[in-house]
């Protein structure tokens, strides 16, 4: 039978899905390497927080520029550049001789991810113009991220067991190179915006300062003391940076984050629930990684296996979400996801060093399904609410909210752990916080979409 080339839509989906694998892989795989990295590079809990958040912080703060750059010069070249930067950064991570070098290389990884992810969504949005086709494509794309999430802890644990922690970064290189080759074969289905559109350099600097200082205060505040002069100065500077950022974005001609997008209640709700979902999920993922490796003394491979019921159900939920969203719409799907979150977190509330693993494992599928359902449904709603010419910026806002949530989750829950009398007490406080945030986000989601429905009906 003669070989039949893939149609343009499938080429786009294949290339973008593969790239999303390494982006999510590096969000989850590092968590099972926390103990070996700490032992090899003499890292404290705060140092480990920086290893995790340096990636997500750079990712979050530059996503908006990544989306805007893709809109300006074209999604395809920006996407390929992001993949190549990610590959280079992964090699530097693997070869890092010290903790500061590893953290710097993780920042470079975040820069690469910030270029490729919003451009991947822009390519998908342009290749699948109908709502049903877009929902299905985004569900598949997010499903590959779910596969990476599921495989990350297990693959990471196995690689660390056989080859050491540096191998978890080397594994990105062949995936990134194959992804670059696939991307070079797709058509540039997302045309660049008019050349007159300028990048918002001042807005970019302000958002980097605001995000970096906010996360740094959460990570280092407990150690330095909240009354420390540097902490108070940093707090004032962070608040000023956020205020100035909003002022600049409301006045500049080509804003990094167009505030008018938030006039849509659907866009605003999707952004907030994406942030909260990432905050509670990745914050507790970080804490539970420390719980298994520090409190229970489990090696990376056993820790990776312990997370399988959680991460496998993220994958299942991501694939089901597209089908459920097409059938019922995003409103009930996201609502169900947050209720699953609250139920699963409630089962983890009484966690201690002698808690039987089967009790933990029973809660993991509930949390995983909740996480998997929320992301594709919220993404479909948000991308459908944005203009095609602003698809890159809209995708940047969405993913910036998720990565900001991830960075804040690790920082906040790490601070709750550091301020507690024991790890078990810190985990209970964090779980209680996660339940409250999940229920609040669900309420906001229902009210925002109800208002949108009533406005449409009127």
TrEMBL record:
Residues 12-454 form the Major facilitator superfamily (MFS) profile domain. It comes from the Bacteria. Keywords: Cell membrane, Membrane, Transmembrane, Transmembrane helix, Transport. The keyword Ribonucleoprotein does not apply. SUPFAM superfamilies: MFS general substrate transporter (SSF103473). Pfam families: MFS_1. CDD domains: MFS_MMR_MDR_like. The keyword Transport applies. It is found in: Cell membrane. The chain crosses the membrane at residues 12-34, 46-66, 78-97, 103-128, 140-163, 169-189, 201-219, 225-245, 266-289, 301-321, 333-351, 357-384, 405-424, 430-449. Signal peptide: none annotated. It is a multi-pass membrane protein. NCBIfam families: efflux_EmrB (TIGR00711). Belongs to the major facilitator superfamily. EmrB family. PANTHER family: MAJOR FACILITATOR SUPERFAMILY MULTIDRUG TRANSPORTER MFSC. This is DHA2 family efflux MFS transporter permease subunit. It comes from Verminephrobacter aporrectodeae subsp. tuberculatae.
């Amino acid at each position: 039978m003669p070989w039949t080339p893939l149609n343009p839509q499938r080429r786009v989906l294949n290339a973008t899905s593969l790239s999303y694998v390494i982006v999510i892989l590096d969000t989850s795989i590092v968590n099972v390497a926390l103990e070996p990295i700490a032992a090899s590079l003499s890292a404290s809990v705060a140092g480990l927080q920086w290893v995790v958040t340096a990636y997500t912080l750079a990712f979050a703060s530059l996503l908006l520029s990544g989306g805007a750059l893709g809109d300006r010069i074209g999604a395809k070249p920006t996407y390929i550049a992001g993949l190549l930067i990610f590959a280079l950064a992964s090699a530097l991570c693997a070869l890092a001789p010290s903790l500061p070098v590893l953290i710097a290389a993780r920042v470079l990884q975040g820069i690469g991810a910030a270029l490729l992810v919003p451009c991947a969504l822009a390519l998908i949005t342009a290749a699948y113009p109908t709502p049903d086709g877009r929902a299905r494509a985004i569900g598949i794309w997010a499903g590959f991220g779910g596969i990476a999430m599921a495989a990350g802890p297990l693959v990471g644990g196995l690689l660390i067991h056989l080859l050491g922690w540096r191998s978890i970064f080397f594994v990105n290189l062949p995936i990134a190179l194959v992804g670059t080759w696939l991307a070079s074969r797709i058509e540039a289905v997302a045309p660049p915006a008019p050349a007159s559109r300028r990048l918002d350099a001042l807005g970019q600097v302000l958002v980097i300062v605001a995000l970096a200082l906010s996360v740094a205060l959460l990570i280092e505040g407990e150690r330095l003391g909240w009354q420390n002069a540097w902490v108070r100065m940093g707090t004032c500077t962070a608040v000023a940076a956020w205020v100035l950022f909003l002022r600049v974005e409301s006045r500049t001609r080509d804003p990094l984050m167009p505030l008018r997008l938030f006039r849509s209640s659907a866009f605003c709700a999707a952004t907030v629930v994406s942030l909260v979902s990432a905050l509670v999920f990745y914050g507790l993922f970080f804490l539970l990684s420390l719980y298994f490796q520090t409190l229970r003394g489990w090696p990376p491979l056993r820790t990776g296996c312990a997370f399988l019921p959680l991460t496998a159900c993220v994958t299942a939920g991501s694939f089901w979400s597209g089908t459920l969203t097409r059938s019922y719409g995003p409103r009930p799907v996201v609502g169900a996801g947050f209720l699953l979150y609250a139920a699963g977190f409630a089962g983890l509330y009484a966690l201690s060093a002698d808690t039987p693993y089967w009790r933990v494992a029973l809660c993991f599928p509930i949390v995983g399904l909740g996480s998997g359902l929320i992301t594709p449904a919220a993404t479909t709603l948000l991308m459908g609410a944005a203009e095609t010419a602003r698809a890159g910026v809209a995708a940047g806002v969405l993913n910036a909210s998720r990565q900001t949530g991830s960075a804040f989750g690790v920082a906040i829950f790490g601070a709750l752990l550091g301020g507690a009398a024991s790890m078990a007490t810190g985990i209970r406080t964090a779980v209680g916080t996660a339940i409250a945030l999940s229920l609040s986000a669900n309420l906001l989601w229902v009210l925002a979409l109800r208002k949108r429905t009533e406005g449409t009906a009127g």
